[in-house]
């Protein structure tokens, strides 16, 4: 027995020694491989983690697509309200609203509207509301009825507002007291068209606008039957979100339930969890604030800190007060924060991640230096687009990163683009030419079953304009993003510029032809050529217009100011006017803009008369070199 025990122990020791050697060698090789991957492919593990999350999301999307009845973001909300009814969903101006409260309030809104309007599944309703919790629960109530909802920009007025309302096919408009004046202005036209207007208030002095708050408070908060939205599926229209493009007026991008899911998944793709608290200060009528921020929070089961509007001075105090861990931004947001006076407690917060787009590299670096190690998840996307990118590595300056999985599922490419002619460059076969690695090109996304382009409501012409055919082979179809990008050797994506008749200022897209139409309403203006120019230290481009005057007329500063201030939101008003004897045209009678954009607004280099929109004086004033220096030194805020 002792002999056998000795032999057994000896064999075990020898085996253990061999195993130890084997595991030591294996561990050494693994470390060498890991070291090699880290040195040769520094983003390998981040790529893997991001792609794994996307595989999980693809599986979830497939389940949603196949589920019967269809499982929408509303069902996700109902599940969250069932799991944790007392968890805070929205914090707003000192008041907390739980998932359960918002659920019940949305039921009351839905029942009140059912009683008043007899809304049916598929009936479109337009929301013209400010950033407040009622926006969220009103949308939820309508979604429970299976109604597509148009999210109207609360900055627009008159012609633009009427246009945005009309193109979504809604028969009902819901508004709030602070926007009553804007609705009253278009009320006669709405009345002619048989549109019913409701206001979220106890009373209203304006005839034909029905107060709804009392009816909501009296309505039952019992759950609504899912049968009310039984015909909803993944390709059904869920929302209309407005975007400016090459038209004179905003376009209603059709947002299907599939796109709602895709946008809401972005928080998970960036690593957000149910324990995170997100700070939403962007407008809820935008994709970023509503789909990524609010719908994304619903998907994760998060708490939303909602603000009426952005405040740089109160931002970090809010973050500390509510233990915010995730913030949203546009480029201007981070710049405003960096422009605030420095304080000792700037890094005393729990924000770990910032999600958004449009930040300049220098502002990005300054933001991190000032406010700590925050993971900035810069992204590139469009409301109606079929291709987008996320910079999940936080590499400063990049708007995203390409990976193999994305290229397989969402085929896309950069093609050579002629900026002067404003059209893609084609070869002798009539096909587009791919841009070389490192070369700036027009981003186009292939239209497939997995990556469709739905288009714009009531605007076939503009939908067709965004479709690009015969790109890489005859008969293929791509979505034209209208954006010039660049891919570098490491697969990072860099935004270069916009093409066409749109520029971006204060986080908003501005359609140049809409601004030109308004300028032409001034009695002195004959023609207007509107474009965006860069201003040192600012993201995007600010509005400028080259105009010609009617014969015998001088530039009327006050009348021109009156037209732009009455009919355009602040971000769209041209801050600079250039008086020209005539406007240069292309061979196809398009106004030339490239040279004007390059020349900018420096009075020392331009012989034409220049004017500046002085917001304090509420008029246009001659643009002097002194004013120019004050703008450049940021003494004058734009």
Explain what this protein looks like in three dimensions:
- Belongs to the ATP-dependent AMP-binding enzyme family.
- Residues 79-400 form the AMP-dependent synthetase/ligase domain.
- It is an enzyme of class 6 (ligase).
- With 638 residues, the protein is an alpha/beta fold.
- It has 20 helices and 30 strands.
- The strands form six sheets. The chain has an eight-stranded mixed sheet.
- A hairpin with a 4-residue loop joins β18 (417-418) and β19 (423-424).
- The chain is globular, with a radius of gyration of 28 Å.
- The mean pLDDT is 91.
Write a short abstract of this structure.
The chain has 638 residues and is an alpha/beta fold.
What keyword list fits this structure?
AMP-dep_synth/lig_dom; globular; 20 helices; GMP Synthetase, Chain A, domain 3; 3 domains; Luciferase, domain 3; 22% strand; Rossmann fold; 8-stranded mixed beta sheet; 37% helix; fatty acid metabolism; lipid transport; 638 residues; transmembrane; alpha/beta; long-chain fatty acid transmembrane transporter activity
CATH-scheme architecture of the largest domain: 3-Layer(aba) Sandwich
Which percent band covers the strand fraction? 15-25%
**Gross geometry:** globular
Our Rg estimate from Cα atoms comes to: 28 Å
Q: CATH homologous superfamily of the largest domain, by name?
A: ANL, N-terminal domain
